[in-house]
Amino acid sequence: MNEDAQYIRKNVIAHNKWFEECIPMIASENLMSPLAKEMLISDLADRYAEGMPGKRYYQGNVYVDKVETRATELAEKLFKAEFADVRPISGTVANMAVLFAFAKPGDTITTCALAQGAHISTQKFGAFGQRGVESVNYPFNVDDMNLDVDGTIKLLREVKPKVAQFGLSVFLFPPPLKELNDVFQEIGCTVWYDAAHVLGLIAGGKFQDPLREGVNIMSSSTHKTFPGPNHGMLLGANLTEKQEAALRRAVFPGVTSSHHLHAMAALAVTLAEMKVFAKEYAAQVCKNAKALASELYGLGVPVLCPDIGFTESHAIAVDVSEFGGGMDVAQRLEDANIICNKNMLPWDESAVRPSGIRLGAQEMTRVGMRESEMKEVASFIARVCKGEDPAKVKKDVKAFKKGFTTVRYCFHEGEPAYAYKKLVE
Q1: Domains contained in the chain, number
Q2: DSSP state of 252
Q3: Taking 80 as the threshold, does the pLDDT of residue 181 lie above it?
Q4: Which domain holds residue 93?
Q5: CB 262 within 8 A of CB 40
Q6: pLDDT exceeding 70 applies to what percent of the chain?
Q7: Does a structural domain hold residue 10?
Q8: Mean pLDDT of 309-321
Q9: Which of 95, 97, 145, 102 is nearest to 122 (CA)?
Q10: Which residues make beta-bridge pairs with 194?
C-alpha cells in the first residue's frame, strides 16, 4: 500500500471512529444494516447492466435480473404501488427522470420555494433549470410550515401547471393533498411527490399515503428515513401505459446508463427489512422527533410550530438566530460531536448565513434511542446554543454515545453501526 492509499484509508477509518462517538442528526442521512452494506462490497460493485431484467444490452446479468425483479416486487408491495423502478442512482436523478418523462422545456410546474424548505433540484440552478421548465411557487403559511390551501387552489386554477410538485427538504407536515385533489382533477395536471425525506415514514404507515391521496408519481432517494443506500426509486399509481413507458425511457437511457448494481441490491435488502420493521421504526422516529422538539422548546431553544406539535415527521426546524445563526451554531455543535446542518427558514434570504438549523431523529432511532434519550440530546444542544464550551459538551456526548453504536430495526440487530474492521481485516 503506498502513501496515498494509506492516507485515504486512515482518514476513512478516522471518520468511522468519529461518527461512532457523535450524535448524527443530519435529516437526510441514515445507517444501512450490515446485510445491506454487504451488498455494497459484493462483485456487483464491479459490474454493469443496461435496460430492464430479461432485456439487457449486456450479458452476465442472470442473477442481477433476479435481484432487480425481487426489488421491484418488494417496492410495489411495500408502498402498494402499481409501478416501481429501482434503477435511479439518486433522488435527484429520480427527479430528473420525472422531469424528462412529464415536462418539456417551457412547461410550468408548481412547487415550493427554497426558503420554504424545497429541495435544490426544484430550483433554476438545479434539475428544473437544467430541463428548462418554469416553476411557480405555492403560497406558504409560515406559522404552520405548510401550504396555504385556499391560495394554492387559486394558484393552481390560474396557472394550470403541467405538473404539480410537492415535497420538501424541511418536511415537517404533510402537504394537503386531499384538500387539493378536486382541483388536480379539474385542471388535469400530473401530481408528483418527492418523498425523499419521508419515504421510510410512508413505508411504516406514518406521515401520509401519497399514492392514495391523488399522487401519480413518487420520486425518492433511499437513504434518509428509509435506511438504505445512496440510491433512488420511482413509485407510481394511476399512470397510463404510455406514462410508465415514458418513465422507464427517462431512467434509461435518459438519465442513467448502468444503475449501480451493488446499491440496487442494498436497496433490495432494505426493502425486505422495511417490510418487517418499517411500522415500528417509523412510529419511533416520529415519537423521538416530537420529544426532541418539545424538550428543546422547554429549554428555551426556539423550535418552529410549537402550537401544532412541532412536527409530524423525523425532522424539526430550529430558529437559532439569537444564538449566532445557523452557520455558527451548526459549527459549534459539530465541535461538540453533534452533527447537523444550517438551514434556511421561510424568512431567510441567504442560504449561506441562514437563521436556522435542521435536526433529524431517524439515525438516532436507528441505533436504539427513544424518548428518554431525547431529553439528554436536547440538553447537549441547548448547552452549546447558550454558549457552553463545545469541548466540554463533547466529552459528555462521547460518554453518552457509547451506549448507542449498534444497528436496530434490521435482520441482524446489534451489529456495529460504524465498524470498518470487517472491510479491511
Answers
A1: 2
A2: I
A3: yes
A4: 35-271
A5: yes
A6: 98
A7: no
A8: 98
A9: 95
A10: 219
Alpha helices by DSSP H, 132-260: 149-159, 177-187, 199-203, 241-249
Give a yes or no: residue 17 inside a domain. no
Q: Kindly report, residue by residue over 392-402, the tens digit of the pLDDT.
A: 999 999 999 99
pLDDT value of position 423: 44
Is 53 in the same domain as 190? yes
Q: Residue 234: which CATH number?
A: 3.40.640.10
How confident is the model over 51-105, as pLDDT tens digits? 999 999 999 999 999 999 999 999 999 999 999 999 999 999 999 999 999 999 9
The x, y and z cell numbers of residue 158, run together, are 390560474
DSSP letters for 17-59: HHHHTSEE--TT-----HHHHHHHTSGGGG----EETTEESSS
Neighbouring residues of 416: CB distance < 8 A, sequence distance ≥ 6: 34, 405, 406, 407
Domain boundary, last residue among 237, 271, 305: 271
Chain-centroid distance of CA 362 in Å reads 10
Distance CA 302, CA 306 (A): 9
User: What is this structure's pTM?
Assistant: 0.96
Whether 263 and 300 map to the same domain: the answer is no
- Residue 200 sits in the same domain as residue 253: yes
Same domain, 216 and 265: yes
Question: Which CATH number does the domain housing residue 348 bear?
Answer: 3.90.1150.10
Q: For 200-258, write each residue's pLDDT tens digit.
A: 999 999 999 999 999 999 999 999 999 999 999 999 999 999 999 999 999 999 999 99
| Residues 6 or more apart in contact with residue 54 via CB below 8 angstroms | 65
